[in-house]
Amino acid sequence: MKAYLSKSKFLKGLQCHKSLWLHKHEPELVSPPEESQQAIFDTGTEVGLLARNLFPDGKEIIFKEGSFTKKIKQTRELIENGAETIYEATFTHNNVLAMVDILHKGIRGWELYEVKSSTGVTDIYISDLSVQYYVLSGCELPISKTSLIYINNQYVKYGELNIKELFCITELINKIEENQGFVEDQLSEMNEILMGKCPGIDIGNHCDTPYPCDFKDHCWSHVPEYSIFNIKRLNTSKKFELYYKGILALSDIPDDYDLSSGQRLQVVSELTNKVVINKKAIKEFLDGIYYPLYFLDFETFMPAVPIFDGTHPYQQVPFQYSLHVLESKSAELKNYEFLAKEGIDQREELIKRLTSKIPDKACILTYNMTFEKRILRELSEQFPSYKDKLMSIHENIVDLMAPFQKKDYYTKEMKGSYSLKFVLPALVPECSYEGMAISDGGVAMNTYATLHLIEDKKEVEQIRKDLLEYCKLDTFAMVKLLNKLEEVIK
Fold first, then answer.
1. 342-350 — which CB contacts under 8 Å span 24+ positions?
2. Of 46, 97, 184, 359, which has the maximum CB count within 10 A?
3. Contact predicate 127/174, CB 8 Å
């Protein structure tokens, strides 16, 4: 009989029964993955393939849509013919389908390995392995180990990539066996749900826990574009507390509802167009800025598998900077920029270029200085011969985000945020990221991370131009915001 409940559907059912039902009966309502989510999927695929090197020379079951029966047959034939390692081994039991990342025949029996691109063990991963164990043991395959393979975030690459040090392997069979009663109960409940009508489950915390649901666009279609769910830094449980009381619009929030001063300002400003301009505080901030003035922004990428010596998994590796310069208040604005060649470690070249442009005791403006300062510290540790120059820049940084973070300048268009992507269009609407090929740091990161894979030179050249344009706007935006701050205290 054809399997109707896959491992992935089981996990979706644990998160939300409505999601499970929709996947089965109305899959056309699935929202396409956002670029950031797709990048996570791609990373998972990359890590999964790399982990196979822990068990080399295995036989792979090739996936083709709609060929599960053939995959199950191929798996059984490989086992019968003495295969010791199988990738994507496929089994079904009680119409539940499971595909195993790595199945290896050990001394005491078969060893089941699930590969994740994360850096630790979570409950959802245990549930993932539990349903696989349920299926394989139901097929009377003797399982001696059930383990999770994941990234060791303490690994630092030097020379050739060391696969055994890159990955951690945690044996979980005791927990998995204890979990079998839970799996059976859940499967029974899910089967009943799939045979019935769509569950009337309202939106809630489960929509994003542990993962963003594929049906958010559908289930959240009644929520206005701007609502209580857009109140910044309001605990999710509080947002749903309001929602379950029938409160969606900011105008319906009770005056005595417990909000922080910043959250209350966001609500009041939205309803009354209230503008906050604390001239005294802004002037004090501006008094700490001096010339020559340098506006600095880094772009980084975070490979799960380190590709440069001295880096660890998911380390933010700088590949680009933009630097706008004002020698004096009346000087002509200059721009310097650097973008590393794709796939090549040019951090030292980035350091040389940057430190050659910024003199000692210059005033450096960044937006959210925590990020730039961390990058500078890490570079100084990994390239100690440049430590003095890098830390000089580090010590002279002033955070342009401060007056907006403190709400010394606030308009309703900022929508409760002090992010540059909200503050800039609110105060300088003619200077916008809209319509740009690369419009935020996440896209820049993912774009650069895969740039070395593109063979079309013209396409690579265009993407590099897009990256430069984006980063340049980040620092130019700081120039415009500084001008705006200076204007409002006149």
1. 342/448, 342/451, 342/452, 342/460, 343/307, 343/451, 343/452, 345/307, 345/308, 345/309, 346/319, 347/308, 347/317, 347/318, 347/379, 347/382, 347/383, 348/383, 348/386, 350/318, 350/319, 350/320, 350/321
2. 97
3. no
Residue 214 lies in a domain: no
CA 429 distance to own-chain centroid: 28
Tell which of 208, 242, 274 closes a domain: 274
Which pLDDT tens digit goes with each residue over 289-315?
A: 999 999 999 999 999 999 999 999 999
205 found inside a domain? no
Shared domain check, 314 and 229: no
Single-letter amino acid code for the residue at 100: V
Tokens for 406?
């403190």
Query: H-helix or E-strand containing 170?
Result: strand 167-171
Amino acid identity, position 464? R
Sign of CA dihedral 231, 233, 238, 244: positive
> Within this chain, do residues 295 and 319 fall inside the same structural domain, yes or no?
yes
Strand pairing category for 5-6 and 96-105: parallel
Q: Kindly tell me if the per-residue pLDDT of 252 is higher than 60.
A: yes
Query: Into how many domains does the chain fold?
Result: 3
Same-domain status, 443 and 458: yes
Q: Is the pTM of this model over 0.85?
A: yes
What are the tokens at 429? 């609407």
Cα-based angle 69, 70, 74 (whole degrees, multiple of 5):
120
| Same-domain check for residues 72 and 166 | yes
CA distance 458 to 77: 47
Return d(Cα 375, Cα 250) in angstroms, integer.
38
* Residue pLDDT, tens place only, 448-486: 999 999 999 999 999 999 999 999 999 999 999 999 999
Range of the domain at 39: 5-195
**Do 393 and 462 fall into the same domain?**
yes
87: tokens are 């990738």
Q: What's the one-letter identity of residue 137?
A: S
